[in-house]
């Protein structure tokens, strides 16, 4: 038997400098060929594997790499291609692969949604009317590649059948048993081929097991895993879970697999071991290093945690690893030369986390004395950050402690204040608006980047931004939109923009993580006490408003989203950080209002995704979220209208909390989920105003007027026309200018026609 081993369960795909993103986008633009794309990404993939091995990882994951999304990879592996893409069997071409993800002129893209409670998005499988077959054994190809090209005997990673089916569109629940039976032999085939090729380990990801399954479903899961492990007795299957503790622990722990991967950071898996023990015949892959945060771990605590874990499993049966795939963190802190060394020293991105995993593994193997120097170095770096100036703002801490209920309630209830707002704004029935951002052309981006590099002056940059605002206010007026936006041209990212301007934040240079497809985000680092320093958005909003008589919406990112899309310090309670952000935003909102901006949108696209996976944690989270949103927004006048935008979210079961935010208007994505979201509002007494997006902005395709009208009519079956706003699904930042103008024109025409028919 081997001694304790180290592993990771996935590594960032994007490369330290986002080489992956660039290659993909160049390919989509026709600047490089398929062969060039594949060559670049192969190099990147092999580098990542070699790096992990070099840093000392024993079990290196292979096959976690993707050209878009690993759920989509699983679909195409089994020929699961929706009919509208004209697929006729065999290995799925790259063209079809990207068509499913991004849509084409003739076929809408598959739905995309958030991967559990992360900001990573996957492509939702559509299983209706499809007979799955194994058309490409992708894990096998990646396994062979690593072995042949690097001599690495890797641990192939695949998304497990239970999770895959459960995440599929609508079918996951009704037909679970039959689908699982259908997929099991295909998985068996994948595993057999891997075993034949010499693979020793395989990691099967089943994060869905953190959610409660019914007794019947558990029976089905047992059947599937029994079939798989019987077929390949020589292959060591690690059933990998993450993001929470396992819900049906006893049943899952009894499944006939070699090992079980548990998350000890985002779920209290230790309590499960203490309560139920750990099966004597299994390997425990213990996720002790946080795969979802960027801070250096308190290694003394991790050593203690490992000791607790070792009460329940022999050292020979232990694997030390990250709590989740490192996909959710950036690659390395090494190139961060501009960060204060105290901050940099407190950070650990993927490579630094791997070093922590390797150190802890060594500690278990050789005893604590073997790693004293490493522990000491880590302690020092953490203490430096804790004692730094960033964490000593006593005033902010006191202000948060002083908050009362009065601070978080609007002066009048919605039904009364909406009258004052109607009076002020005089909007038509079914008013049209957009969600905030307008196309960020290469020119916009280049100008910003020049300004950042100091190649153009502040004044020249401001003039340029104003010229964009001029142009787009004119376009919006010309199209006939009722409520305008300034366009967010000054922002690279809706969270980073605020992060750069509030105290308590830092922004890394290369700290990118994948959000969806080639889109990466660079979450700001909330490392200290958050505070308002000076107005952030007032200048652009006031300028835009000066150009038009129509209302211009102020545009802010909400406290919950700033929290959820940042890497948040882990030395104080998360909800304390949340209230610090809310207080800072409250000051920004008051500044906007004072400058005459009387419609203010506070975006909360990440509110729903932050909902904890464990239902027992829901209440506390939702209460804290509602409290913070209200804290940020409640101090405005009755005739100031607060909007919020919640993007792609699943609202079933949380409508009451959405309502409790007490925003006057909410906008939500609907078209990409093909209308399903509306059902959440059926039979609900949602009494405020609402805009359900009438067209998908993730695809270059501009829908016809008829299609948009249908979307509007569909929404009007559930929502009163007097409550209803018309807008695209989300911001238009990633769209081209022509597409945007075309899309908005069609939208306004559709709105006018429906308005007239009311
Ligand atoms: N106001 C933002 C925009 O339009 C909202 C983005 C989002 O919901 N993710 O880009
Ligand atoms: Zn959105």
From TrEMBL:
Pfam families reported in the protein's UniProt record? Meth_synt_1 (PF08267), Meth_synt_2 (PF01717)
EC number annotated for this UniProt entry = 2.1.1.14
One term of GO molecular function:
5-methyltetrahydropteroyltriglutamate-homocysteine S-methyltransferase activity
Q: In which pathway does it act?
A: Amino-acid biosynthesis; L-methionine biosynthesis via de novo pathway; L-methionine from L-homocysteine (MetE route): step 1/1
Q: Where does Zn(2+) bind?
A: 645, 647, 669, 730
Q: Which UniProt keywords apply?
A: Amino-acid biosynthesis, Metal-binding, Methionine biosynthesis, Methyltransferase, Repeat, Transferase, Zinc
Q: Where is the active site?
A: 698
GO biological process annotation, one example: methylation
Which sites bind L-homocysteine? 435-437, 488, 603
Q: Which residues form the Cobalamin-independent methionine synthase MetE N-terminal domain?
A: 6-313
Q: How is the cofactor bound?
A: Binds 1 zinc ion per subunit.
Binding residues for L-methionine, per the UniProt record? 435-437, 488, 603
> SUPFAM superfamilies, alphabetically?
UROD/MetE-like (SSF51726)
Its EC top class is: transferase
Q: Which domain of life is it from?
A: Bacteria
Q: Does the keyword Protein biosynthesis apply?
A: no
| Catalysed reaction, written as an equation | 5-methyltetrahydropteroyltri-L-glutamate + L-homocysteine = tetrahydropteroyltri-L-glutamate + L-methionine
Q: Required cofactors, per record?
A: Zn(2+)
Q: Where does 5-methyltetrahydropteroyltri-L-glutamate bind?
A: 18-21, 114, 519-520, 565, 609
Q: Which residues form the Cobalamin-independent methionine synthase MetE C-terminal/archaeal domain?
A: 430-752
- Protein function: Catalyzes the transfer of a methyl group from 5-methyltetrahydrofolate to homocysteine resulting in methionine formation.
Q: Which family does it belong to?
A: Belongs to the vitamin-B12 independent methionine synthase family.
The protein's name in its UniProt record: 5-methyltetrahydropteroyltriglutamate--homocysteine methyltransferase
């Amino acid at each position: 038997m081997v001694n304790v081993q180290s592993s990771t369960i996935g590594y960032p795909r994007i490369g330290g400098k986002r080489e992956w993103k660039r290659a993909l986008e160049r390919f989509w633009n026709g600047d490089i060929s398929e062969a060039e794309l594949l060559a670049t990404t192969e190099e990147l993939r092999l580098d990542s594997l070699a790096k992990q091995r070099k840093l000392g990882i024993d079990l290196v994951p292979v096959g976690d790499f993707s050209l878009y999304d690993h759920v989509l990879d699983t679909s195409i592996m089994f020929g699961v291609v929706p009919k509208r893409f004209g697929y006729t069997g065999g290995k799925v071409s790259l063209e079809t692969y990207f068509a499913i993800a991004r849509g084409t002129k003739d076929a809408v893209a598959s739905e995309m949604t958030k991967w559990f409670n992360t900001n990573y998005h996957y492509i939702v499988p559509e299983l209706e009317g499809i007979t799955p077959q194994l058309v490409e054994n992708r894990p096998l190809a990646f396994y062979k590649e690593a072995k042949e090209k690097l001599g690495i005997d890797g641990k192939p990673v695949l998304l497990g059948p239970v999770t895959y089916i459960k995440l599929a569109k609508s079918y996951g629940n009704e037909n679970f048993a039959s689908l699982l039976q259908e997929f099991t032999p295909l998985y068996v085939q994948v595993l057999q081929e891997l075993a034949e090729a010499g693979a020793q380990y395989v990691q099967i990801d089943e994060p869905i097991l953190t959610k409660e399954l019914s007794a019947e479903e558990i029976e089905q899961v047992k059947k599937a895993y029994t079939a798989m492990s019987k077929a390949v007795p020589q292959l060591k299957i690690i059933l990998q879970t993450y993001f929470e503790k396992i819900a049906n622990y006893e049943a899952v722990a009894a499944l006939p697999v070699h090992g079980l991967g548990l998350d000890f950071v985002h779920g209290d898996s230790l309590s499960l071991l203490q309560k139920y023990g750990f099966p004597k015949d299994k390997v425990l892959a213990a996720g002790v290093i946080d795969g979802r945060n960027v801070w250096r771990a308190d290694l003394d605590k991790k050593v203690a945690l490992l000791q607790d874990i070792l009460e329940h499993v022999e050292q020979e049966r232990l694997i030390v690893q990250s709590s989740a795939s490192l996909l959710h963190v950036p690659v390395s802190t090494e190139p961060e030369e501009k960060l204060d060394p105290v901050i940099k020293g407190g950070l650990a991105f993927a490579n630094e986390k791997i070093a922590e995993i390797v150190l802890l593994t060594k500690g278990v193997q050789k005893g604590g004395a073997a790693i004293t120097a490493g522990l000491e170095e880590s302690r020092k770096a953490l203490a430096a950050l804790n004692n730094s100036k960033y964490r000593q703002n006593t005033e902010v801490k006191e202000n948060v402690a002083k908050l009362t209920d009065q601070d978080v309630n609007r002066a009048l209830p919605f039904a009364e204040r909406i009258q004052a707002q109607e009076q002020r704004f005089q909007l038509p029935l079914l008013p049209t608006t957009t969600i905030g951002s307008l196309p960020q052309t290469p020119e916009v981006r280049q100008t910003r980047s020049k300004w950042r590099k100091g190649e153009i002056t502040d004044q020249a940059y401001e003039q340029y931004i104003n010229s964009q605002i001029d142009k787009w206010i004119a376009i919006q007026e010309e199209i006939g939109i009722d409520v305008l936006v300034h366009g967010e041209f000054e922002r690279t990212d809706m969270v980073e923009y605020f992060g750069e301007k509030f105290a308590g934040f830092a922004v890394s240079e290369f700290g990118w993580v994948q959000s969806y497809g080639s889109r990466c985000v660079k979450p700001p680092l909330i490392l200290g006490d958050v505070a308002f320093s000076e107005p952030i958005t007032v200048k652009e909003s006031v300028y835009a408003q000066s150009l038009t008589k129509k209302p211009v919406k102020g545009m802010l990112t909400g406290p919950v989203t700033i929290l959820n899309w940042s890497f948040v310090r882990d030395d104080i309670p998360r909800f304390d950080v949340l209230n610090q952000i809310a207080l800072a935003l409250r000051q920004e909102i008051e500044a906007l209002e004072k400058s005459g901006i009387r419609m203010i949108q506070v975006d909360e696209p990440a509110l729903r995704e932050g909902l904890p996976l464990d239902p027992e944690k829901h209440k506390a989270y939702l209460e804290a979220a509602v409290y913070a949103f209200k804290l940020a927004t409640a101090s405005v006048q009755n005739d100031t209208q607060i909007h919020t935008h919640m993007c792609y979210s699943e609202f079933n079961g949380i409508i009451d909390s959405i309502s409790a935010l007490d925003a006057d208007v909410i906008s939500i994505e609907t078209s990409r989920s093909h209308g399903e979201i509306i059902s959440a509002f059926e039979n609900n007494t949602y009494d405020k105003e609402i805009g359900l997006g009438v067209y998908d902005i993730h695809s270059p395709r501009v829908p016809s007027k008829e299609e948009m009208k249908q979307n509007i009519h569909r929404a009007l079956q559930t929502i009163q026309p007097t409550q209803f706003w018309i807008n695209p699904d989300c911001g238009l930042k990633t769209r081209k200018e022509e597409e945007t103008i075309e899309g908005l024109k069609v939208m306004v025409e559709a709105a006018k026609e429906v308005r007239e028919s009311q």
